[in-house]
Amino acid sequence: MRRRPVFLITVMCFGFAFFYIPILSMMVYSFNGSRLATVWGGFSTKWYVSLLSNKQVGAALLLSLKIAVTSATAATILGTMAGITLARFRRFKGRTLFSGLVTAPLIMPEVITGISSLMLFILMAKFLGWPSARGFTTVTLAHITFSMVFVTTIIQSRMLQADRAIEEAAMDLGSKPWAVLFDVTLPVIFPAILSGWLLAFTISLDDVVITSFTTGPGNTTLPLLIWSKVKLGVTPDINALATLTVLVVGCGVALAGYLLNRSEKRRDADARLAYRDND
Amino acid sequence: MRNRIAHWLQGRGFRDVIIGLPYVWLLLFFFIPFCLVLAISFGSRTPTAPPFGYGGDHPWISFVGYSRLLHDELYIRAFLVSLSNAATATVLCLLLGYPMSLALTRVSASWRNILLMLVILPFWTSFLLRVYAWMGLMGKNSWFNGLLTDAYNLLTPAGWHLSSIPMMHSNFAVVLVMVYTYLPFMILPLYANLERLDPVLDEAAMDLGSRPFRVFLDVTLPQSLPGIIAGAMLVFIPAAGELVIPTLVGDASSPMIGRVIADEFSSASDWPMAASVAIALLLLMVGPMMLYTHYQTKAEAGEEP
Fold first, then answer.
1. Tens digit of pLDDT for each residue in B46-73?
2. How confident is the model over B61-114, as pLDDT tens digits?
3. Nearest residue to A241 via CA among A261, A226, A255
4. CATH 1.10.3720.10 describes domain B70-301
5. What are the chain B neighbours of A37 within 8 Å (beta carbons)?
6. Alpha-carbon distances, residue A86 vs A124, A160, B22 (angstroms)
7. Domain A55-226 has CATH 1.10.3720.10
8. How far apart are CA A104 and CA B298, in angstroms?
9. Can you give the residue ranges of every domain in chain B?
10. Closest approach of chain A CAs to the CA of B289, in angstroms?
11. Do B103 and A122 touch (CB under 8 A)?
């Protein structure tokens, strides 16, 4: 019989209070009628009205989503290739450098990634004449580069768990490598690809530092818009924006968790059935 | 010609494409920019655009940036402030995160899934907004600051009373917000590590008469060392180079290193100096990075350190 770990549970409750009290406080204050963001002045939804009628916010959100979808898709393709490379091709020329290149962006301070990308774009513009202006393209290129390595880690660890025998069987039965890739490997690791895409999407949607270095005038993403407002202090409409973000993300994560859980259970059940049939 | 390409693509080409595309991409957009920073750090500042150049006498490169790093108090202090803030935040994350991760391994499976999701959820919401949430709490007129001020005034003699606690724009605020935003990075690898430990060992030690705290010290703690190190580095490395948190809640008169790099680059437009500071930061981080990559795989496998 185990003792109830009272101390551990107490610390955990404190920890979760620490996680969620600031967020809840922000949500409550988004309904604050007062212009002073931290003094309560009665219930009001006026900050939501002013937020939703703000055209700047809409445009910034649209740009952020465009960048996030484009960069997450490209990052997933490149990251999946890199993950397959690291898991399946044990030896090739330059493997050490390659695995270094895949790990380094994960732990590189964002400021350095940001200024190095900007230096590259400025020098390219000067000596190659491209990119002539910074904006959607440059931000997307930078986002692809630093989010693809996150996809790579997910794919690599999934590939190492996956059963190689299925691929080898397909190969032995005469399938060409591309057919094996599209008909066997990719369907098997599909859930990992999906979570890689989602991670790349959120990383891109959330990024401030690298975006602030690689974007140009007139191309403000949502985090950059919030950044420029928040630098001046607490403003009530950001509370409303934060509340909406937390609600959207919370529902999304809950739904994704539910769906993943269900598909995992179904797969386990299928696997059990398959084993029973074999016996 | 088309036939030959098709033939190549079906044979060797498969491998070449799968390896080559991400390789070329990372070389182009990560490796070359990094080499540029390294090269620019040995340049000297010029009034041209882009603002750096090489020239003068043999050996044509300049070490001005690096020598200023060692002599100018601004940079030394920025490095010290960054390292001490990051180290404090890491220790606090460990002190709070370790019991939380351990508690997660002790609750029932259905609770565990919900609680893990609650740990991950803030990670999916905007980083910037989580920092911002604390700006609201720490401000002079906020209910949280008011509560702390009342508690402080209750405990101290009348002469020390304050109308509000000056929390914003201090290293205290930076560390607090760092702990808040980076705590999931500590909990997740630690939990992954602790979850894989064999409970039989704990039970054996208990059966042999060890008290729970001794079991923790002698059995659980040593086995979780890879998780501790992986989590600590995952907090320490980004915290040391942090730019957003010190800009929003930090003390502008003693900036952290990330802020110094950004300022040298944008406001001062001194590319060689910004590049030198960046390279120095990377050199300082090499040790922690190697520790991280070494222990991260072990933590995931639940191996002995």
1. 887 788 888 766 667 888 889 999 999 9
2. 888 889 999 999 999 999 999 999 999 999 999 999 999 999 999 888 888 888
3. A226
4. yes
5. 136, 139
6. 30, 9, 11
7. yes
8. 19
9. 70-301
10. 7
11. no
